[in-house]
Amino acid sequence: MEESRAQGQPEAAATADRNGEAKTVFVGHRTLAVPAQVLGILAGGKPCAEAVAGAEVVVVLSHSPFLAEGSGQACDQGVLAAENLVVAVEAVRRQGAVYLHKGKVQRGELKVGETVQAQVNAIRRRLVQTHHSAVHLLHAALRRVLGAEIEQRGALAASDRLRFEFAAPQSLGGQEVARVEQVVNLWVLEGHPLGVETMPAEKARQIGALPFPGERYGEQVRVIGTPEIGFELCGGTHVSNTIEIGPFKIVGHSEPEAGVRRLEAVAGLALLDYLRAHEQVTRILGEQFKAPLAQLPERLGAVLTQAQWAISQVEDLKVALALARCEACLGEVEQYGQYRVLVADLGDTEPAALAAAAEGTLSKLGEGTVVLGSSPGADAVAFTVAFSPKAVGLGLNAGQFAAALAQLTGGGDTQGNAQIAQAAGRQPTRLKAALDLAFAKLYDTFNDT
């Protein structure tokens, strides 16, 4: 009753802790609108007594129906309104006992001490809490399907989607994902009431209520859930019955880091928006490929096959061009006894074609070496070094040789072995110097044989 009286007369409320510091009374679990006194305003990071239209502000209120961001749930949004005044509230966070409402004065003048009507966007609240309750059901379903050994690592409940991260000892394949989705939808259809109760932390542990990772809890905790599904500690907002969640669909499955899996899902009204967006994409694809939905997979498969064939043809042409360039350089081959040496700049040849050209040219030369360089980009240098077995027997190593050339051109990334290797640099202006060095080293090696 005391809180109810404070709601009706916020200007008379204490709204201060025992030390006399400002605090905000949160009423968002019971109502979406409340009159509240403006206790403080920050504009440009500095306290001020008033803020005019266009100003971006952070507002402290005596009472607030706005849920602050926390435990994976997105914060509420809405407005602060009074006569000739509208402040759009875009984000809310909690700092100790104070709720900080970040937004922009859209009309009028906001003043410290005045009373405003704090109003949460009800539709957005419903969408967010639908996903928040769905997160809890998803967690419980994963424990049912994969086992209680899974460990929650994070979660997000937004207005348009939800996300859940966890670690599990076993893999999560397509069948398991489908089973988890089915369990959640069955719980939704069964219409389980989701009870909310504040209780001692010890009692919460006794009934198996799961904490949110990284959160700190006091002696009294807020518990949400039902015996048929499970309980969790949670300070956020929820639907009152699982049937309010509506249809639930897992739309993404990934592994953002080693040992951690992520599921993304959409539920309720947001799922309709998700399906509409995908329906539009499907419609556009159908129009472009002149095929009904049922034939799209086959049509797209055929297009993909054609594209892959075209790409392979282009790659073959690149190799053929590189070989032709090498052929044009055969007049520059130096002969040292039984060894033949070619060092050449192949212009803008790409690394894959450069490697194919080096191997093909060495097979024509027989015993000897082929060192090819190119500049396939404004800040890119590529090298391929190919040595015949007898050349390697003289102590030459293609990997080491290529690494030295790459280092000279600002690179160093090398792949390969003693007979053939590739390396990359980043300074095309030094390509000629690197190839000159390669020729000098090979001259010294073979001239002594």
Automatic annotation (TrEMBL):
Cellular component annotations (GO), alphabetically ordered: cytosol
The keyword Ligase is assigned to this record: yes
Protein name (database record): Alanine--tRNA ligase
SUPFAM superfamilies, sorted: ThrRS/AlaRS common domain, Translation proteins
Region (Disordered): 1-20
Ligase recorded as keyword: yes
Single GO molecular function: ATP binding
Summary of the function given for this chain in its UniProt record: Catalyzes the attachment of alanine to tRNA(Ala) in a two-step reaction: alanine is first activated by ATP to form Ala-AMP and then transferred to the acceptor end of tRNA(Ala). Also edits incorrectly charged Ser-tRNA(Ala) and Gly-tRNA(Ala) via its editing domain.
UniProt keywords, alphabetically: Aminoacyl-tRNA synthetase, ATP-binding, Ligase, Nucleotide-binding, Protein biosynthesis, RNA-binding, tRNA-binding
Catalytic activity: tRNA(Ala) + L-alanine + ATP = L-alanyl-tRNA(Ala) + AMP + diphosphate
PANTHER family for this protein: ALANINE--TRNA LIGASE, CYTOPLASMIC, ALANYL-TRNA SYNTHETASE
EC assignment: 6.1.1.7
Superkingdom assignment: Bacteria
Organism of provenance: Gloeobacter violaceus (strain ATCC 29082 / PCC 7421)
Biological processes per GO annotation: alanyl-tRNA aminoacylation
Similarity field: Belongs to the class-II aminoacyl-tRNA synthetase family.
InterPro entries: Ala-tRNA-synth_IIc_core, Ala-tRNA-synth_IIc_N, Ala-tRNA_ligase, DHHA1_dom, Thr/Ala-tRNA-synth_IIc_edit, Transl_B-barrel_sf, tRNA_SAD
Ranges of residues in domain Alanyl-transfer RNA synthetases family profile: 1-277
